[in-house]
Structure formats: C-alpha cells, structure tokens
Request: fold
Amino acid sequence: MAGPIEQFAIKPIVQINIGGVDLSFTNASAYMVLTVVIASAFLLIATSKHLVVPGRLQSSAELLYEFVAKALRDNAGEEGMRFFPFVFSLFMFILVANMIGMFPYAFTVTAQIIVTFGLAALVFITVTLCGIYKHGFGFLGLFKPVGVPAILAPIIIPIEIISYLSRPISHSVRLFAVMLAGHITLKVFAGFVVSLGGWVRWA
Reply:
C-alpha cells in the first residue's frame, strides 16, 4: 500500500527542459489548470441566465459573491472593493482546489508549499505596492503604531518590520500545513479501515 506522503508527490506529465531549466508540465500543473477551468465554468454557467428568481446554481454563485464582498467590506471598507476581483479569484481558486483534493486519488494543489507561498507572495506584493503608490513614504508609518513612545521605537519598529515581512511565510505555511496534515490523517485512517476490514474477514 502506498504511504501517506506519496499522494503529494509531483510527477511530470510532459517533460520540458529549456536551457537546463525544468519547465515540465506536472500533475500539480494539470490540477491547477483543472481548478481554474472548473471555477470559471461554474461561474459562467451559474450566471449565464441572469434570472430574477435564481436557481440553485445562480443562488450558489450569488452566495459566494456576497460572502466575499461582505468580508472585504468589513475588513477594508468600500475602498477595498476595488480589489474584489482579485480577492474573489483567490477565494474561488483555493475553494475549488480544496474541494478537488477531497476526492479519492486526486492531487491536492494547496498541500504544496510552493503554491501557497506563491499565492501569499502575490497578495503581499500587491498590498505593498498599492500601499506605497497611495501613501508614498507615509506607508512606512505602518511600522510605527500610533501612540508608541519614541523611546520604544528602536524596539517596536524592527519587530513590526519582521512581522510584516514574515506574513507571506506564515500565511502560506498555515494553508499548506492544514491541507497536508488533514490529507495525511485521512490516508492513515483509510489504511486502518482497509486493514480492519481484512482482519474482520479472516477472523
């Protein structure tokens, strides 16, 4: 029986090597493409009829839309809604990828640290560039919280900088670790069930 870690192994489907750089199309690439296709197809089909009284698919799409919109408004205000397409795209990608990973023998994209780090880095870079574009050097005031005495600034500012720069790592590890541990646990329990079934049959 395959070990619980083998389900996360990245295997090349189409070998591509350019200038010594491995650009092979792997099972991870295939499942990311599948995730985008399923998410896009669901939203296109669900919203194609524009019904006043929505059906099940349109209701599901509208619920997802309102959930993300409300969360974004609550955390970033109305100005934050300009980032709604970006946030909603990330939400749908992660949601669909996690749901695909629940099927037996499916590859779990979000259990790969490089994928979750890529998503977290994309968010981090976007937020940082937008903050600098809007506030200029005033963006650096983020690292000195309001009300902090000047005498504590040499201590607080480095801590805030390290905390800010570590966000992509902490966010990526959080999703990666949850998906990895969860699927390993399911695999182990499934192995127990199979072993128990064989023991009961021969008992």
